[in-house]
Design brief:
about 70 residues; mainly beta; 1 helix; 3 strands
């Protein structure tokens, strides 16, 4: 774990309410990124990559957990 993380999440989560019920887009992400590290998000369509990035850039508020950037 980096000594001086520039991005840190703990149990980061985001859910959405639809007509059919609640959808968990992101659940329980723990992440630490240190200065100078390079990070990529890989996954299939609908896996929550864009939702996670939107939470890290404060364009979308998490419904659970914390994110520090």
């Amino acid at each position: 774990m980096p000594d001086d993380p520039i991005i840190s999440t703990s149990r980061l989560a985001r859910s959405f309410t639809t007509k059919r019920g609640t959808v968990e887009a992101v659940r329980g992400i723990d992440l630490t990124v240190g200065r100078g590290e390079i990070l990529g998000f890989l996954g299939p369509n609908g896996a929550g990559k864009t939702t996670t990035l939107r939470m890290l850039t404060t364009l979308l508020a998490p419904t659970g957990g914390t994110a520090t950037v």
